[in-house]
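## tool: complex_structure
## caller: assistant
## args:
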Amino acid sequence: MDEKTTTFVRDDSLSVDMPIDSDVFRVPPGYNAPQQVHITQGDHVGKGVIISWITPHEPGSSTVKYWAENSEFELKAHGFYLAYKYFNYTSGYIHHCTIHNLEFDTKYYYEVGIGNTTRQFWFKTPPPVGPNVPYTFGLIGDLGQTYNSNTTLTHYEKNPVKGQTILYVGDLSYADDFPYHDNTKWDTWGRFTERIAAYQPWIWTAGNHEIDFAPELGETRPFKPYTCRYHLPYTASNSTSPLWYSIKRASTYIIVLSSYSAFGKYTPQYKWLVKELPKVNRTETPWLIVLMHSPMYNSYVNHYMEGETVRVLYEKWFVEYKVDVVFAGHVHAYERSKRVSNIAYSIVNGLHNPINDQSAPVYITIGDGGNIEGLATAMTEPQPSYSAYREASFGHGILDIKNRTHAYFSWNRNQDGYAVVADSIWLYNRYWTHPEQTSLALFR
Ligand SMILES: [Fe+2]
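## result:
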């Protein structure tokens, strides 16, 4: 058998949050200076960007100045701001500004703030949507703000394969692990992640740590801090909620789902997904990727079978529409499945085991960003035959799309040197390649 459970177990003694006076949490200098700057895709195809930031003392301005590299021509986009209260916490002024109609494949500089306290950043728009466009995504989940979290971000930055956009599979700040869901942890997390999130889009997925439902504190609006702080282009895909939506980027079609919103038949998310999947044109975007927080295939003890109800409802569609990869987080470890499906069961026929299925996605759990809750080290034994590789270490993934048929996924564990990959697989596009394939595991 070729299932692999590595004996490598990461020392997670550093699973404590970095102290508040750490340099990664530093408040930028200057009165009311914009902080926690982050960007995400702002439309369906990548010509828009949503820029978000927080001013602590007064609203200031919600306007973004921006200009293309090698251009004298300065443009302005006007956004808006909001603020929220959570129990005994009051947020700063949270600005969101969407820039539309950017040129593809172009570097833009942008500036936020006013007076003497402006700050400049830059981003690069993706190439036009098309079938053979190479593009590289980073995969991070369950990051938190511990020393391990910082190592994960540093390894991502230092990876010789340069990610251009991060697919984030949920659980951001872990503020809710602290008394009264200490929302200052959302602020420190925003400052911690700015060093990457201000320069490349993070495609956000909501996790359980974003729910912040706390009736004992009088807080009954689920996802309040998350949705106030992170704005998403959900209306561009005809979604009615920022918790599920889709984007196209380069040669990919990315569907983001919410494990913690109603997903049963007749619910808004279900009805949206039913309409969404047939819209994916694999001639235009060969790579179909799904992000959700709770994994459908997970052989760790932690969160075992939590994704089962979603799997029962949605797995058959992932097979029917030949989803290439499903990325999830939640479990604080790494796991990669073989291409399997378990969709034959119909109450009485007894067909309830995963079987090899070349139309099925690979399921990758990458909830190993390094948060305060530590690693999930306990695994179900024996390793199920559908599970190809599992290891309880922190790390990040890189999905390096080469063309319409080939993509190379690698998982970098934090323990290793920057260039060392612990697990890797060539992914052959489910739509464009013959279903018979062999997995090449390079660099093992
Ligand atoms: Fe989670």
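## assistant note: The first strand starts at residue 4 and ends at 5. Confidence is low (pLDDT under 50) at residues 435-444. Handing back to user.
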